[in-house]
Amino acid sequence: MLGAARATGDVLVFMDAHCECHPGWLEPLLSRIAGDRSPVAPGEVVAMDRHYFQNTGAYDPLMSLQGGENLELSFKAWLCGGSIEILPCSRVGHLYPRQDTRAPLDQEATLQNKVRIAETWLGSFKETFYRHSPEAFALRKAVKPDCTERLQLQRRLGCRTFHWFLANIYPELYPSEQRPRFSGKLHNTGLGFCADCQVEGDSLGCPVRLAPCRDSREQQHLELTSRKEIHFGSSQHLCFDVQREQVILQNCTEQGPAIHQQLWDFQDNGVIVHILSGKCLEAVVQQDSKDLYLCPCDGKASQLWRFDQVHTVDER
């Protein structure tokens, strides 16, 4: 960053030390930058207009250059009016060592960078990242980063949301019919607990019941998709299903008649209707458990639900 701050040329090029350049590698980058001031290559070799780089906040000064800085730069480019291009005519070889020589401290620094990126740029999708990286979640719980300056930068630049990135830049990462309309813990308004599966190991066939709400519990993260399926946990292959009026977890059905058993309508008044039967999802208290069943819809408090997160279909 010291070199970038003191540079006087029109173009900045960042490159890992262990790179080898093919003759003529720089000219295609300079030619493209002359017509478009956005970053043109991610990762180990990146070139961009110097003024563009500085005006969009440069590299995050509170991130160590131990990995993830290219993600921050790329998200910022796409979300804040720029773009990323890869130019095949510019050839640079990145030489990897035969084995990972990074010290544990370096790996922790990389994880800290990723947590900072999640807290700054991913919005509600950061919860998906934390579900897939328990180490990052634990690090965030221990020391939550101060992202005030980068969030102010987003507002100043008028940046879009990560939801927009998934919908418009990389839709194949998250097929539209599987994107969540609602996500997070599913709270029962009447009883004050969250939907959970309290079976260790394989959750197939597990009855869904209420348990105390806990942020750290992966089994309490649900997603109601645009296909009207309720996905369970981070695996994305288990869905709410019904067996003799009781709600259980079964493999998500992609097609065929069985799929209708797994379709739910979350209505504006907070009730979740099982589309096939027309009955409502209700938490039924019996002895020491609060299991989920289908019951006639009557609007009682035990039939009222809310998710942590709401995702608009066409968020800009």
From TrEMBL:
It is found in: Golgi apparatus membrane. CDD domains: beta-trefoil_Ricin_GALNT15 (cd23442). It is a single-pass type II membrane protein. Its main location: Golgi. One of its GO terms (molecular function) is carbohydrate binding. SUPFAM superfamilies: Nucleotide-diphospho-sugar transferases, Ricin B-like lectins. Its EC number is 2.4.1.-. It comes from the Eukaryota. Its cofactor is Mn(2+). Keywords: Disulfide bond, Glycosyltransferase, Golgi apparatus, Lectin, Manganese, Transferase. Pathway: Protein modification; protein glycosylation. Pfam families: Glycos_transf_2, Ricin_B_lectin. GO terms for biological process: protein O-linked glycosylation. InterPro entries: Glyco_trans_2-like (IPR001173), Nucleotide-diphossugar_trans (IPR029044), Ricin_B-like_lectins (IPR035992), Ricin_B_lectin (IPR000772). One of its GO terms (cellular component) is Golgi membrane. Residues 183-308 form the Ricin B lectin domain. It is an enzyme of class 2 (transferase). Belongs to the glycosyltransferase 2 family. GalNAc-T subfamily. This is Polypeptide N-acetylgalactosaminyltransferase. It comes from Castor canadensis. The gene is Galnt15.
